[in-house]
Amino acid sequence: MDASELARHVAALRTVAERPLVVGVSGHGGSGKSTLARLLTTAIPGSVRLRGDDFLDPSRSHRRSPDWDGVGRLRLVDEVLDPLRSGRGGAFRRYDWSRRELGDPEPLPETDVLVVDLIGLLHPEARPWIDLAVWCDVDLATASARGMSRDARLGRDHDALWRDVWIPDERDFDAGFAPRASADVLISDARGSTTG
């Protein structure tokens, strides 16, 4: 299976789903989560992508944590996933990076396929609300090197964060929650083939 086959699989699941379908895309930082989520929403008409960065708390994501404490999984579930799956309306608040605070409430997207890409997503706090869990299966060293390179290209000096916080957090999260094992689909490269 490659990314386009995954998109066809999601489209097929959509036809039999009795409620909106939530596709969760996770993996190590730099593994291709955002790339895959963009590919899926481009390939699936009417689908909506929710960026993981909208549910991060930078004050907490820049310190060591065994469970990616800076990821607002409970807020994601309470404000988006649970209301969407149960057919209730509602509003949610994205993190506004320019103001460094939660933004103004906005209505839930109207869609029958929601694609969420987020680090630390395959955690017991959020996994029950994900219909199809996709793990970007890139080893930690490769993913981290890609992430560091991306950040450098964007002018972000995050090397110390990668080395001292994010890479150790990844190791702890893998050991504590086995996100790869809880995935329904493993993608070895968002641009190429998949396994599992």
TrEMBL record:
Residues 22-187 form the Phosphoribulokinase/uridine kinase domain. It comes from the Bacteria. One of its GO terms (molecular function) is kinase activity. Transmembrane segments: none annotated. Gene3D superfamilies: P-loop containing nucleotide triphosphate hydrolases. It holds the Pfam family PRK. This is Phosphoglycerate transporter. It comes from Clavibacter michiganensis subsp. insidiosus. The lineage of its organism: Bacteria, Bacillati, Actinomycetota, Actinomycetes, Micrococcales.
